[in-house]
Amino acid sequence: MSTTIEYNTADFFQVGKKDASGWAEDREKGASIFLRLGDGARIDLVAKILDTWLDEEDLNRGMAAGALRHAWDSEPYTGGVRVGSYVTSAVARLRDGDVFSMDEFVEEWGESLMLEAEERELKAMAFPLTVYRGGTGTVEEVATGVSWTLKPEIASFYANEWPQRWGGTREPVIVSAKVDEGEVFAFLDDRSEAEILIPYPDQIDGVGRLSCSP
Length: 214
Fold this sequence. Notes:
This protein is an alpha+beta fold.
């Protein structure tokens, strides 16, 4: 018999349960609320979560993590165009967006975004890892992102196919690097992209450019 979840966004801004089962319950509730909202309401919710975190006010971390995981993985449409994740879209609505840092966000929330299976996989990985990132522009621009992958074919997709879908005309670039365990803050794989989150990627040594053939 399934359990009915009460949907109240105010619950995000109260201190949550401390034990593991309470965290799991709150996380599921947060994800469920996020998925029931429309695009605009999702962005507003994420902005409020980020504002509350930045202001160091009371926040139900489990619920926030559940919502933020889906916000990180999915992208709203604005005017029929993809505009990045709900997290990046929410940054524009923050009360003081100048104090927001994606590096600090990943450092603070990366571990909380992971599912238990992803945590186990990350702990079992043999470091250093070779990671890849694809995009357009210069090597320096592409290498500054916090989202990397263990799969070169995924990096190639984001360098070649993804920009073309939305009219991108800049030069495709794929970079690679080796990272140690202390540089990796999360492993996310629900989209089978083997995503590795690395805050402060400008501190990674030995970033190199790869062939960008699709």
